[in-house]
Structures are given as structure tokens and as C-alpha cells.
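Researcher: For the annotation table, I need C-alpha cells for DoxX family protein. Please keep the output clean. Sequence:
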Amino acid sequence: MTALDIRTDTTATARRAAPDVVLLAFRVVVGFLYLLHAVMGFGAFGGVDGHGAGLPVGSAYWWVSVLQVAGAVLVAVGLCTRIAGFLLSGLMAGAYFLMHAPAGWNPLLNLGEPAALYSWIFLLLCAFGGGRYSLDTLRRR
């Protein structure tokens, strides 16, 4: 085996692994960013009013925050990724249509762009799953 063969084999292996590594990074970053959004319902990072207020414990929106935290963690580690993605996609679609769309059709003007993007991001994760580097894959082995 020559140096060229080794280099070609290494390059081919890296090309095959790249989509799985990118999906891992995507899941972890999306899960982390969504977790930051979710814990605002409990008063973190300025809370729901910008002054540290949390949602009333036990209220419907408080339970939504609980689901968002759980879903963000599941997505980040790649456990039950398709189910979590489906649930979170629905939550964010609901948030968009119930909270933002009544203020107008344009997501830039009704401040619904993040909700719309998260809805589609989570739908993508629902379709693709957690990938090779996920607890879903580890659990199947």
C-alpha cells in the first residue's frame, strides 16, 4: 500500500463520516439553543418578561416549557430523536400559528421567524433521526 493509497482511503473515510459528524453538531447546537429558549419559562435569562419572571407553575405554558426542556435534551443527546423532533415541531408550529400569525402573515414582522425556523428544524430531525452518533443508534446495537 502506497502513501497515495493511504491518503485516498483516509479522505474517503472522512467524506463518509462528515454527514454524521455534521448531524451530531447540528443536533447538539440546536438542542442547546432551544434549551436556552425553553428555560426562560422558568425565569432564566431574563424570563418571559425580560425581568426574570417565570410562568406560573402548573399552567399550560409552564408545561410547554417542561416539554421544551425535555425535548431539547433528547434532541441534543440523540435519544428518541424522531419522537422529540415531531413533538417539538408541533409545539413550535402551534406557537407560530397561535401567537405570531394573528399579527400578520410576515414572520419578520410578526416576530415568528424563530418559531417557524424551529418548527422546520425539528421536522427535519424527525425525518432524519439522530444519525450514527446518537444514543438512538447506540441503543439499537
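Researcher: And a one-line annotation?
Model: The chain is about 70% helix and 0% strand.
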